[in-house]
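BUG-239 | component: ligand-complex export | severity: low

The export step for adenosine-5'-triphosphate jobs runs without errors, but we want the raw record kept on the ticket for reference. Input record follows.
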Amino acid sequence: MPKKTLLRVSNIDTFYGGFQALWNVSLEVKPQEIVALIGANGSGKSTLLDTISGLIRSAKGGIEFEGKSITTLDPFQIVALGISQVPEGRRVFPDLSVLDNLILGSYNPKARPKKEQNFKIVYELFPILEERKNQLAKTLSGGEQQMLALGRGLMSNPKLMLLDEMSLGLAPIVINNVYKALRKIRERGITILLVEQNVRRSLDEADRAYIMEAGRVVLNGNVADLREEEEVKKAYFGI
Ligand code: ATP
């Protein structure tokens, strides 16, 4: 039987003032999928994640999570329902310790009672964060800061994680470790919608992908099928 839809975005338009950044965008994510958003700079990928997490409101269309509308909810309510966004550039609090950064992730009322359990999960995935828990976040390497950002996201007890450009600026070996962690996160039953600038990598790691151009979804499908699309080959693999 096909799995139910966890997240459904239907025909949304999103504006920044008079500028329309998303045009009639629709997307679906099923439980435990890894879905990638691909597209050139400025094609609207981050705007789509920000609209899902309630940081920006769509002017038209709707967003449902577990069958309920979240279109007009505030970001903190959306986090409490189980959607956690890890923004581009990691944005850890540099002058707080690793531990305090993680604690901030567990602030919503649903996650608070599960704090100790979630600490265990985070430290099992990223033992380095336990070793460095008393260190200031700004003293971590780029890869460790990305792990901290993922760890902070996990502390909110998410069902769905929205990950924006996790591998930006990281060395290839560090990127491999981050993706290894991502697969383990999925094994824990958490669903992932990710924005990735590295198209090859995202097609290797995801189950399905949506390709965006100028604020519109222009193609979507299973990664194996997308790899065979002429437009994808031409635009992203130079074939
Ligand atoms: P990148 O890979 O460069 O992050 P993206 O695909 O995530 O790109 P967005 O950041 O969503 O793209 O931007 C989509 C469009 O919206 C761009 O034209 C961008 O200039 C514009 N935009 C983004 N944020 C704002 C803002 N705060 N105010 C006005 N325009 C914005």
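Assignee comment: Attached the raw record above. The CA atoms of residues 88 and 166 lie 7 Å apart.
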